[in-house]
User: Fold this.
Amino acid sequence: MRRVHVWVSGNVQGVFFRAYTRMKAHELGIKGWVKNLPDDKVEAVFEGDDESIIMMIEFCKKGPEGATVTNVRVKEEKHTGEFDSFNILMY
Assistant:
């Protein structure tokens, strides 16, 4: 199992990025969270198997229709297993 912390930059707020991220995470069996940041980025933590994490990162690089992703920063972290679902958080 793997855990990554992700920050997505670009036109990623107001385009349903968080909702589509949650849908994709549910589809892939990923646990964690996603939220908007005050600096117009989206931040997320994903935990799941390696293949699902790779697919989730690829999704973040494109985003949903209407999003324009300019950068995705990924930080590997130690898998904790602390999540039992995937949620949208408020900042």
The radius of gyration is 12 Å. The mean pLDDT is 97.
